[in-house]
Design brief:
The complex is a heterodimer.
Chain A: E1 3-9, E2 18-24, H1 33-46, E3 69-70, E4 73-74, E5 96-100, E6 109-111, E7 114-115, H2 118-125, H3 147-157, H4 164-168, H5 175-187, H6 195-208, H7 219-223, H8 231-243
Parallel strand pairs in A: 1-5
Antiparallel strand pairs in A: 1-2, 3-4, 3-5, 6-7
Chain B: H1 26-32, H2 34-59, H3 66-76, H4 88-118, H5 133-136, H6 138-157, H7 170-178, H8 181-208, H9 217-243
Helix pairs in contact in B: 1-2, 2-4, 2-8, 2-9, 6-8, 8-9
Classes of the chains: A alpha+beta, B mainly alpha.
The complex binds protoporphyrin IX containing FE, iron/sulfur cluster and FE2/S2 (inorganic) cluster.
């Protein structure tokens, strides 16, 4: 495949940045999207140019590092698929592909396609955990969890913190991410002791980080590689309003 | 373009959570948060929605003729008598609606400003949005509704801009206004905006208040559509009837 790539290049946080066009020949349809970028970078290095910076780690769709916006869609055209799991066969020979970083005030660009998603870490740091004495794992059957609760908690736990929801949202809102974390932990007995403070603090941090509010537009759930549903946001709202009536 | 220029060292902000300067009272926390403000929008929207439903049904009384409608309009000003004095009920309603609309508009403004700031840069490649038309008209539609409410009050409540403008003659005041084409057009546009606003708003408010669930999704969407169509169409029948000469 021969491709025309238009990629956002930005040297650093203070740089203005611009879309830069590259021609890339002989791309195999079996390459993943990131392998295609690797090939581009090797050629750029050979030509003495700076390679395109992009984030990635596991390359198997579980770490959440790799998101970029491809042709206006977070993680590209394939449903429920991270950028690293997207293959070039989704594109056609001769196509022009636009590649941009996540856009949100709370996710400033560090360089090229790399954004600073540490706002998510601070949301987690303010309540996305359970306080337990670590040590040997407790006997699994000591705390029974009904199957439907366990399933719902697990579905929400599959959120990989990639930030596609924020990137797709016209308000740069982190509600889907925060709702997945709150729903996951607040559903389970292990999360119960911190149920109120967790949701209160995570929402406060989410707001402080400069994410927008939710207008129930629904772009997030479409972009989400894990299919976190909008009902999780309804649940976050319910947990939040409930928490303010306690203690 | 070449990208071999000197490096700018990337910086990553620290991953520390600070809790300074956060309100501690439940009301303070509620009002400062995006979810709290959205809940205010949802509740005030619901109050206005209830009012509009009753208001629309009342308007249909115009089809019973001049006398019947004027009598009804007079009764509206005296509901609650003799338990409540004079026009007390009317003023209580007005105060309630004023609080609702001021809170609704204030939170709408604050949240919209925040939302626009949270997403300062557009994508070079246009996003293919999945959202419905109604979602994208909430802000402009809301402004149209606000302007309409002001005109509506000047027209039928204070009678300032009404062509007939006789107190107590509600029927003739209405007919005189809707005989002007642009008043009717503005009214119809505002009611379409209102319909769209309710179409997204009702269902959105259900999620905001956390009463929404996967099981209720379908019913809530149907209820939103039915309410939106009922209220828009109900209000619009009056000017249409005047235009068609059914009410004159
Ligand atoms: C002053 C005029 C008005 C303005 C400026 C306005 C503006 C807005 C805006 C910007 C939103 C948020 C939309 C979003 O989050 O996507 C909204 C939501 C809403 N509006 Fe209005 N609106 C007005 C009048 C009304 C009226 C008359 C009603 C009564 C039917 C209403 C009912 C609602 C409801 C139920 C919501 C949903 C709240 C939620 O999502 O939780 N609004 N409005
Ligand atoms: S909710 Fe979905 S899109 Fe958002 S961070 Fe989690 S996995 Fe990514
Ligand atoms: S690199 Fe880990 S999810 Fe894509």
């Amino acid at each position: 495949m021969n491709l025309t790539l238009r990629i956002w290049r930005q040297r650093g946080p203070e740089d203005r940045g611009a879309m830069v066009t590259y021609e890339l020949a002989d791309v195999s349809p079996d390459m993943s999207f990131l392998e295609m970028l690797d090939v581009l970078n090797e050629r750029l290095i050979l030509e003495g140019e700076d390679p395109v910076a992009f984030d990635h780690d596991c390359r198997e769709g579980i770490c959440g590092m790799c998101g970029v916006v491809i042709n206006g869609q977070a993680h590209g055209p394939r449903d429920r698929t991270t950028t690293c799991q997207l293959h070039m066969r989704e594109f056609t020979d001769g196509e022009t592909i636009d590649i941009e970083p996540w856009r949100a005030a709370a996710f400033p660009v560090v360089r090229d396609l790399v954004v600073d998603r540490s706002g998510f870490d601070r949301i987690i740091g303010s309540g996305g955990y359970i306080s337990v004495v670590t040590g040997s794992a407790p006997e699994a059957h000591a705390t029974p969890v009904p199957k439907d609760i366990a399933d719902a908690a697990f579905d929400n736990a599959t959120c990989i913190g990639c930030g596609a929801c924020v990137a797709a949202c016209p308000n740069g809102s982190a509600m889907l991410f925060t709702s997945a974390k709150v729903t996951h932990l607040n559903l389970l007995p292990q999360g119960a002791p911190e149920r109120e403070t967790r949701v209160r603090d995570m929402v406060a941090t989410m707001d402080d980080e400069g994410f927008g509010g939710c207008t129930n537009t629904g772009e997030c759930t479409v972009a989400c590689p894990k299919g976190i549903p909008l009902t999780s946001i309804g649940n976050l709202n319910r947990e939040y309003l409930r928490s303010l009536t306690r203690r | 373009m070449s990208w071999t220029d000197e490096e700018v060292v990337p910086r990553v902000r620290s991953v520390a959570v600070t809790n300074d300067a956060r309100p501690t009272s439940p009301v303070g926390i509620f009002w400062r948060s995006t979810i709290g403000k959205k809940a205010v929008m949802a509740v005030t929207g619901g109050v206005m929605l209830l009012y509009l439903l009753v208001h629309m049904l009342g308007n249909l009384k115009i089809f019973y003729g001049r006398e019947s409608f004027d009598e009804y309009a007079h009764w509206l000003r005296t509901i609650g008598v003799p338990a409540l004095h004079g026009a007390w009920f009317l003023w209580i309603m007005r105060a309630l609606l004023l609080v609702a609309i001021v809170l609704h508009a204030t939170t709408a403004y604050q949240l919209s400003r925040r939302d626009l700031k949270a997403r300062p840069q557009k994508y070079a490649h246009r996003q293919r949005l999945e959202a419905s038309y109604a979602v994208n008209t909430m802000r402009y539609g809301g402004i149209i509704i606000a302007l309409f409410v002001i005109y509506h009050l000047l027209d039928f409540t204070t009678l300032t801009v009404n062509r007939h403008g006789v107190e107590g003659a509600a029927y003739d005041n209405i007919v005189s206004s809707f005989s002007v084409w642009w008043v009717t057009l503005f009214y119809i546009i505002a009611m379409l905006a209102l319909g769209l606003h309710i179409h997204h708003g009702f269902w959105s408010a259900a999620r905001t208040l956390g009463v929404h669930s996967a099981a209720r999704e379908k019913n809530l969407k149907i209820a939103a559509t039915v309410l939106a169509v009922l209220i828009s169409a109900g209000f619009v029948t009056v000017p249409i009837a005047v235009l068609a000469g059914l009410v004159d």
